[in-house]
Amino acid sequence: MNISFKHRSLLLVFPLLLLACSANSSDKPVEPTASSPDSVEQSGSSSIKVNPDKDAYFGDFHIHTSYSFDGYANGGFTTPDDAYRWAKGEAIPGGWNGSKLQIKVPLDWYAVSDHSEFLGLFKKMEDPVSPASKLSIAPQVTSKDKKVSFDAYVKVLDDINKGIKDPELLNPEISKSIWKEIVATAEAHNDPGKFTTFSAFEWTSAPDNRNLHRVVVFENAQGIPELPYSKLDSGRPEDLWAWMDTQRANGASLFAVPHNGNASNGLMFPETTSYGGSQLDKDYAAKRMRNEPLYEVSQIKGTSETHPDLSPNDEFAGFEIWDYTLSALSIPASVRVGSYVRDAFLRGMQLEAEGKGNPFKYGIIGDSDAHNSAAVVEEDNYTGKFALDNSPEHRLNGPRGFEEKNARQIRQFSSGGLAGIWAESNTREALVDAIHRKETFGTSGTRLKVRFFAGYQFDANLLQAPDWVQQAYASGVPMGSDLPPSNGAAPSFIVHAVKEVNGANLDRVQIIKGWLENGKTVEKIYDVALSDGRTVGANGEVAPVGNTVDASTATYSNDIGATQLATVWTDPDFDPATHAFYYVRALEIPTPRWSTYDAVTLGVAPRDDIPVSIQERAWTSPIWYTPAH
What we know:
This protein is α+β, with helices and mostly antiparallel strands and 629 residues long. The protein is 22% helix and 21% strand.
């Protein structure tokens, strides 16, 4: 691999990329009251609160530390233990100018998912007690001479790209001990009812720099294998799924979460034949859905809900688009079909109508993909993807000597997303049950809460009842579910969104519908709940909510918008004979983007090549409708 030195700073930022390898609104949210079954104490464990109506628990499955090859190569030094302590609200080292990293509001659950390729190996080379420090490459990797250490990383990457496997670096005894430590750390931080952890890793396949990455999560501590699965074992998703099935046979419970279809250049959601060589049939759909219940729609490397090229009539389709492949040369992505999940929902529905099964029937979450232990989910507390890019100057302009196209790629990073899970308690068992029900939603980092139900018997005034949640479960189905076939009646949908505490007000709530019409896929967006007395015009348009952002101070006002939006909406275009899906997108009012906060910190004007303000949002898992046969 011939790399000119001018590209080396970029490799320090992306070393693993070379693996190639009608609305009701008020100031008070409508919530279940004491007349409904309150949260109760779980039998045998007085500290675990159980709520049959379920609560939303926020967390992140996609976090890296210095135990990831690229995290370490980019100056990372924090560990999995640091990551869990950060998520619980503790301050950890690694901030700008010697400051600490600390989340403002702790999370409910967390999973460290370092890359399985050379997992923890390079970090352990620093430890004289570890066998990793005795490897022949260790003096180069840990050298204080940056050129020497950099050349060592390049040599390893070059060997991988050539298919050369260095047995010394793949010593199973060293790898087993590191993985055992990672699992033990997750177990040590798991505190049922208070803070939940999961052991996890990331499988990092990227053929021709096209992203196929998956985070693999173990649901509990039983049956966890001695080693995780790596791209060095295989880069085919089908082989990963086969390995996962083997682990289940050996007593493990696990699932995978694909992400960044936007960087796959059409590879994530195939049209006819998968990268692994499979035809899109019932067998392929069953394997994929058995192993992958969720899709990560938003993270640092952008949002992959949809793209303006795919949804030209969606005015909000261009949100935080990160339009690159995983190339060290900042090569743009060009293939839209197969890269975004709304398109996948549409084509999966069509495949199912053709009798081929639906391989893209995903629940939705958000995650971060931060590589310095701290999920960068708070826009005004953004610390970058890597340890080396956590200064405002670096994030906005890149390091000295950086090519402009590469600096642009960094400032187009989003803040991290979050996963919301509607569960009865904050325990592994309850969270996992919800995951398999797909009663999940993703956000762009905000903690707004959104609920979504469908049914045929919802009263228009149901949301006024104190026990509306119980009634919704009793006579309908929640997000992630299948709606029973209709006898001719159109379904109604309950939508309920509540702003983040101390966060931004809400602009609107939308239902996105996809269906089949004469064998073709169709999508439509319905504005079902609007703030500030706005209504949908005769032309279908809605006036903007406004924008209170002051770019000079990176502040905004909640003088516009609503604290909650809720409605019961009936589909006016329903056809009981055709397949359809529905999901909710809830938007906040405009607030400053992280880059605007950085500009204020530096005392400079916001850049004109990135947004000054954004509208944070949440997306629910879909509800699917299949007609009777």
